[in-house]
TrEMBL record:
Gene3D superfamilies: Tetratricopeptide repeat domain. Keywords: Repeat, TPR repeat. It holds the Pfam family TPR_12. TPR repeats lie at residues 37-70, 120-153. InterPro entries: TPR-like_helical_dom_sf, TPR_rpt. This is Kinesin light chain. It comes from the Eukaryota. SMART domains: TPR.
Amino acid sequence: MGNVHLSENEFHLALDYFMRGYNLRRERLPPDHLHIAQSIHNIGVLHKKTGDYDRALDYFKQSLEIKEKHIDDDLSKATTLENIGGAYRQKKGYDLASKYLTEVHEMYKPLLPQQHPTIARCFGEIGALYEDQLDYNHTLDYYRRQYEMDEKTLPSEHQHLTRDMHNIVRIYKKKDEHDTASQFCKQKLAEQRNNLPQSHPRIDHTLRSLVDMFSEKDSNFTLK
């Protein structure tokens, strides 16, 4: 229930359930049990989502310390490391964020298929790290990797595909490369029209992105 409330941004209810679960596990399990590590991790995720990054890091590191006693590399440990990297990014601790996110990417390689949404998400985190540092060339590289992998691994209607495309167009605009952004959208629009139903929402989003870009350059532009 805690995760349900967290997904709906009901943070007080989520924390209440997470803490109840954590306290129950502490009563019944050894202090370094992996289930306790997961409870601590969940509390860290909540604090990260509410912007309390110092407290989130404290919980993530406690969780990681327990996990490292029991396991080598696995997805649970990798997820905690990724969250640590993301929290450091939010705190503008870019060197530490890069260290953790690079480690996570390497950890995922033997644990997951070569093409996987979790690896795509990691690319997005690394791209966001470069964006925060205004390194838009590297940002684009990672955002495009994320988009290409998500296209191969997610359902065509998944909202992350719209988000990924929006991120790429947004960075082209930050680079003042509006023509490249429009060419990218036109290319994706052609692919979408060939592969998706004409009423698909991704086609509508791409069309609106094109209209917005050309309207910024020419108020008399009409999309054909």
